[in-house]
Specification:
By secondary structure, this protein is an all-alpha fold. It is 77% helix and 0% strand. It has 20 helices and no strands. The protein is rod-shaped, with a radius of gyration of 56 Å. Mean pLDDT is 77; it is low at 1-48 and 660-668. Residues 1-11, 27-38 have a biased composition (Basic and acidic residues).
């Protein structure tokens, strides 16, 4: 029987070989209830019990302390609110306890830390798995290495090693002490059968008591049975042996005085404000009552125990009331946590389809998670259900969030393909010199780039920089060209300004041919200067206005003046020797001739509507003037076409003569 109880010692004190915490913590491990044997704010509320229940609880706690006096330290090491702590802080607290406290005094603390760490890590691991799957991963391939988890396992393994070593060393001593105490009990039992002088027997009895007090701790599983057996035989010795009444009464009186002190102290404890402190002291009083003080006279036994028991009962009732108050707090915490779960569910059901808004929702859910952990404990009976509802709410949000980002990833990949196509286009055009065609195209692809959405972040900067460099390369070249052209145009403007001043200062000599020749020289000079800046093109009008005034003084017709100006262009075309330019000019002049003819026909048709009107009619006069103006223009355009034809014929003749010249030179 004692061997079986001794085996139970190993199970009770934790000297087992359970495996360490693994990455995949099971639900059964999570649901392990953490039993608290002393009163504290973190202990689960207990069901209302009887006076015998609380005495049994005290006896069990004293039995645990009896194994090693350092066990008592567990009452003084605070059990923190592990539920509200992060995984990193839980590891830190576990490390502090294992390093600084007696291993036999921190079992409940370690169990509480492990319980909360496993819950938090499992939830964290599931979150990482969902992220992995949402990015296209296969669940079977999921692996996650957590530094925090590895640190926890290392510290917890260190704790288990210290704990197992402690109980291994303790076990042999406890067994020897148990055997010694059982031997003392046997000797105590044999005293009633020894026929010797009563004083000698009493002296032997006192020696056995002294040996008992020094016999050392026994396994907690045997503690109460051994002490009950011992006290039973002590009472038998006092009650049934014919000892010297004076010696017996002296012992009884001393024991009664000591037990009265304990009772009075226990009764005073019922008014102690600090309930935890009061209950721990009551536990110590029960230990002293059992271990240090012997029996009292029969007439006082029931009465003195009744008083002590009643004080214990009052303390028990105070505890039950305290637990009821804790229940109210836990119920309030439950309401808070259910509200948090509802908020997370609402966010999860309305996940935003906008990245910025979704990031805000992620921050809101994270804040609600922190608020959930800090909300405090809930009633033990709904703890697992509340935790499961919380995890499912967070998981639901994560699923919808991940689905959004999975679709966003596809969309961003399509955007990346579009931008890559534009990048290739920009690179292919960046060195082109077809400015008129490429410039609007480059502007178009820049505009299109802006309409394309985001691309995956890891490509974003790289592809943008490459596109920007290609565009900048082209437009830097274009601007350099424009700057050069702008400089040339400004120089042309200055030269044309000087030409105008010279033309303005020119005075007619009276020799018409000479003056026309001089004016033609101004025109030739003017044409050599080329384009001026766009915002200064009005200088051309000023030049023509001065020319018109001079031609008017020389009585040069508009057509003649136009042909004089056109002669300069003919010379430019001849120098350029560009068939395409001559063809374009011919096409332009013919279009103008057709337009003039069309206008003349239309005006002449209109004039027929005024057949009955007087020729002096202002309307008729205006139509006639328009017809004449268009006829003059038509004659001018025809004259220009003639000059162009002459130019083309001359060029053709030169082209025909060129081979003959080459052939004759070869013959020579």
């Amino acid at each position: 029987m004692l061997e079986e109880k001794d085996q139970k010692l190993q199970e009770d004190v934790g000297g087992d070989e359970n495996s360490e915490t693994t990455e995949n913590t099971t639900d059964s491990e999570k649901s392990t209830e953490i039993k608290s044997e002393t009163l504290d704010e973190n202990a689960p509320a207990k069901e209302a019990g009887t006076e015998e229940d609380v005495i049994e609880e005290i006896d069990e706690s004293n039995a645990e302390d009896a194994e090693d006096e350092d066990n008592h330290r567990r009452h003084h090491i605070p059990i923190l609110d592990y539920h509200s702590m992060s995984m990193e802080n839980l590891v830190g607290e576990l490390q502090r306890l294992v390093r600084n406290e007696k291993v036999q005094a921190i079992r409940k603390h370690v169990d509480g830390i492990k319980y909360e760490f496993d819950l938090k890590f499992q939830e964290f691991l599931e979150h990482k798995k969902e992220e992995f799957i949402s990015k296209g991963g296969n669940e079977i391939d999921f692996r996650y290495s957590s530094v925090t988890k590895r640190q926890f396992n290392e510290v917890y393994s260190d704790y288990r090693e210290k704990r197992n070593q402690y109980y291994k060393n303790l076990e042999q001593n406890l067994k020897l002490n148990l055997a010694n105490r059982l031997e003392i009990i046997e000797e105590l039992k044999s005293l009633v059968n020894i026929e010797e002088d009563i004083n000698t027997t009493y002296k032997n009895f006192k020696d056995l008591q002294e040996r008992w007090r020094n016999a050392g701790p026994v396994p907690r599983a045997n503690y109460n049975d051994v002490w009950r057996t011992y006290h039973h035989h002590i009472e038998i010795f006092y009650d049934f042996l014919h000892l010297n009444r004076e010696l017996r009464d002296l012992d009884f009186r001393h024991n009664l005085e000591e037990k009265m002190k304990i009772v009075e102290r226990a009764e005073a404890l019922t008014k102690e404000p600090d309930l935890s402190k009061a209950f721990r002291e009551l536990q110590t009083l029960h230990k002293i009552w059992k271990e240090d003080i012997g029996p009292v006279g029969k007439e006082h036994r029931e009465e003195i125990w009744e008083r002590f028991s009643n004080a214990t009962k009052v303390m028990h009732q105070r505890r039950q009331e305290h637990y009821k108050e804790l229940d109210k707090v836990y119920e309030k915490n439950l309401e808070t946590k259910n509200e948090i779960i509802t908020k997370i569910q609402a966010i999860g059901a309305n996940v935003s389809t906008n990245h910025r808004a979704l990031q805000q929702q992620i921050r809101e859910v994270e804040a609600l998670r922190e608020e959930f952990f800090k909300a405090g404990k809930v009633p033990q009976k709904v703890n697992e259900a509340t935790w499961a509802a919380f995890k499912e709410a967070v998981r639901g949000f994560n699923r919808n969030k991940n689905a959004y980002y999975k679709n966003l990833k596809k969309e961003q990949q399509l955007n990346l393909d579009k931008k890559r196509a534009l990048l290739e286009k920009a690179i292919s055009l960046k060195d082109s010199e077809d400015w008129d065609t490429v410039t609007p195209e480059m502007k178009r692809i820049q505009k299109e780039w802006k309409t394309i959405g985001h691309v995956p972040r890891k490509y974003s900067d790289k592809i943008w920089n490459e596109f920007k460099d290609a565009c900048n390369h082209y437009f830097d070249r274009l601007h350099a060209l424009k700057n050069a052209a702008f400089k040339e145009e400004n120089e042309n403007f200055l030269k044309k300004s000087e030409c105008i001043e010279k033309l303005r200062a020119f005075q007619l000599t009276g020799d018409r041919d000479k003056d026309i020749s001089t004016i033609k020289g101004f025109i030739d000079e003017w044409k050599t200067y080329g384009r001026v800046p766009y915002n200064k093109k009005s200088i051309n009008g000023k030049f023509n206005k001065i020319l018109d005034a001079l031609f008017k003084k020389l009585d040069v017709s508009r057509q003649e003046s136009e042909l004089l100006r056109y002669g300069n262009k003919i010379q430019q075309l001849a120098k350029a020797d560009n068939d395409r330019a001559i063809m374009n000019e011919r096409t332009f002049i013919r279009r103008k001739i057709d337009e003039s003819k069309s206008e003349i026909r239309q005006l002449e048709n209109n004039l027929q509507f005024f057949s009955n009107a007087s020729e002096n009619s202002p309307v008729v006069q205006e139509v006639i003037q328009n017809i004449e103006r268009h006829k003059d223009a038509l004659a001018t355009w025809k004259a220009k076409l003639k000059k162009l034809n002459i130019l083309e014929n001359n060029l053709n003749k030169e082209a025909e003569e060129a081979p003959d010249t080459e052939a004759s030179s070869e013959e020579e």
